[in-house]
Amino acid sequence: MPRKHCATNDPAATPETLMASPREDRRRRIRSEDAKPAPAKKPARTTRASSKLYSAGALTTAQPRISELVPRRKRWMAAWFFAAIVPVLLVQQLYLFRVGRIQSVAEQAAAQNLSVMQQQQSVKVAASKFYTLHLFGVGTIGNWVASTFLIISAAGCLIVYSIRRHKVDDYGGRYRVWLWVAGFLAICSLDASTGIHRLFMFGMMHVTRRELWAGGTGWWLFSGATVGGILAILVLRDIWRSRGASLAFIVAIACYVGATLFYLRKYSIGSNDQDMMAWSTQLLCGHALLFYSVLLYLRFIKFEAAGEIAAKAAKSRKENPNAKPRLSRSLSQQPKDRPKRVRKVTTKKKVAKTTASDEAVSESVATDSDDAAAPKSRKLLRKQKQQQRRAA
Q1: Tell me, what's the pLDDT at 318?
Q2: Cβ contact 121:112 at 8 Å
Q3: In a 3-state reduction of DSSP, which class is residue 110?
Q4: 157 CB contacts (<8 Å, ≥6 apart)?
């Protein structure tokens, strides 16, 4: 049966085209679509994530390490020393300015013929206005300087720990003391700015039901001195190789001891203001020298890790060849030209007669003592002892 065709208005339509299958229509449609030009693509929009906002210097690999901030030259170390001393002097000068202002207010109140109560009130108002310039107290500039010195020293101890723990011959793990020192200095910094030692004092008084000394002052004073003394001994043993750091640390400890004696009223140089200035000066100088000793030891171990200290020692030996070399304690590092000592053997029992074998052993020890090693000489001595015991 013939297929029905739809009517079309195309004049060029032929029976062959009208009889085309649907597959051929689909092919013709695809060819016509391929022949059309492709639409132009829109340019991709640049975002901040894809664009480069910083150069290569901002990357982590290009940033300097913390240990690289430690000064290497001596003039920079001298500049750091003066930078640590200047805040101490500035605190003292500001306190003298505060005392002068209070005295001027008291003199003005006396010149106005005010009553005693009014004069005291005016002095209290002036003291409260300049309270920030006091040497020590919560919210004063003196406490801020002390807290800053202590927290920077704690950060320096952490840097020392990060370098010092890579030392090869530290089999005892003495580098761990720097973590304890960093924690102790951080607590001291918090106490300098907030005064939390009072909470410890009141807590111990509540638990023990007794005042250790001077209204409970002994609780925090003796506890801090005990912990600080133990850590100071361990630190001094570790930094003893650096002369500058050891000297600064010892002077810092002396300043702390002097400040403690002034705090306990064991010494006095004059009025109350003078004693307070002496106490604060010694305490702040102790903080400054503690910071400087940590900085000196950081510089020392940085040179030691880079091998520059050993190179300097070898250079000094070349310049002064007549200097005697330092002898190590180990037998393997002793010079070969040096004769080795042999211990003299003494027996409690006196031997009346010596046998021929004893004489032969003693002669062999005498001849071979200069050339034999220490373990060999010890074996010969043991044989000699056994033969003498047998003869006795």
Answers
A1: 55
A2: no
A3: helix
A4: 178, 179, 181, 182, 185, 294
Distance CA 281, CA 275 (A): 10
The CB density around residue 389, as the number of other CB atoms within 10 Å, is 11
Closest C-alpha among 98, 192, 206 to residue 150: 192
Domain ranges of the chain: 67-310, 341-391
**Whether residue 316 has pLDDT greater than 70:** no
Long-range contacts of 76-80 (CB under 8 A, 24+ apart): 77/295, 77/296, 77/299, 80/292, 80/295
- pLDDT for 109 beyond 80: yes
The structure tokens listed for 259 are 């400040």
- Say how many residues make up the chain: 392
For residue 323, give every residue at least 6 positions away whose Cβ sits within 8 Å of its Cβ, in sequence order, or none.
316, 317
pLDDT tens digits along 195-216? 888 888 888 888 888 877 767 7
Q: Would you tell me the crossing angle of helices 356-368 and 374-391 to the nearest 10 degrees?
A: 160
pTM as predicted:
0.65
113 torsion bin: left (phi>0), alpha (psi -120 to 50), beta (else): left
As given in the structure block, the two tokens for residue 5 are 């065709």
Is there a contact between 289 and 251 (Cβ–Cβ < 8 Å)? yes
pLDDT digits (tens, 9 = 90+) for 51-97: 678 888 788 777 777 777 788 888 999 999 999 999 999 999 999 99
What are the tokens at 280? 């604060």
User: How much is the pLDDT for 137?
Assistant: 81
**Amino acid in the structure at residue 182:** A
Neighbour count for residue 177 (Cβ, 10 Å): 20
